[in-house]
Amino acid sequence: MSNRGFTLLEALVVLAMLAVLLSLAAPGLQGLRQKHQMQSQAEQLQASLLLARSEALRRQQRVTLCVRATAVDAGEDCALAGSWSQGWVVFVDGNDSGRREAVETVLQVQKALPDFLTLQGNAMVDRYISYGPQGRSQSTSGAFQAGTLTLCGAGQSHVWRVVINAVGKPRLEKAQRLNSGPC
């Protein structure tokens, strides 16, 4: 009579070997996970910009994204200092100020990015991005607002850029990280 199956000792040896192999693969998977998280955050920013643009067209009034305040009690306020890594708020900017007032409708709130990510805007888009009733990006003074937001990850060889053209259309691009560039 032959036995079919494994002894307890054999099963434990196989599980121990599997645990060793998984522990060797885990660091590589962490980098892959961060890479996908970074791309997801870039896509989320682009989606928020497209939401703001479409809502400005639909409502026929200014809709703005601003850097989210980090204070615990700040709620959905715009930050006076900091970077886009703190998250952002999309709101109907009824008074065209580029800063959210308590009576203005919030459309979306994005929480802070994971610690390994950094999101920075160039001078034209470092605090806010605003869309007018025609769906064009424009500063609070009425001038067109074009710029680039760059998303970097610690240990990542690429960056993601969200580029906003002169009419306000955002596009996403992946680029090689340069030592002299942002982040």
Give short descriptive properties of this protein:
single chain; 183 residues; alpha+beta; minor pseudopilin epsh fold; four-stranded antiparallel β-sheet; 1 helix; 28% helix
Structure explained in plain terms:
- The protein has 183 residues and is of the alpha+beta class.
- The protein has a single domain (34-176), classed as minor pseudopilin epsh domain (minor pseudopilin epsh fold).
- It has 1 helix and 8 strands.
- Strand 7 and strand 8 (170-176) form a beta hairpin.
- The N and C termini lie far apart (69 Å).
- The model has no long low-confidence stretch (mean pLDDT 88).
| Number of distinct helices | 1
What is the count of β-strands?
8
Give the second-level CATH assignment, the architecture: 3-Layer(bab) Sandwich
In angstroms, what is the radius of gyration?
23 Å
- Biggest sheet character: 4 strands, antiparallel
Q: Strand pairing plus helix content: what structural class?
A: alpha+beta
Low-confidence stretches: none
Number of domains: 1
What level of helicity do the residues show? 25-40%
What oligomeric state do the depicted chains represent?
single chain
Strand order of the largest sheet: 3-2-1-5
Under CATH, the topology can be stated as: minor pseudopilin epsh fold
Compute the average pLDDT.
88
Summarize the structure.
The protein has one helix spanning 8-59, and strands at 63-67, 88-92, 106-110, 117-121, 128-131, 147-153, 158-164, 170-176. By secondary structure, the protein is an alpha+beta fold.
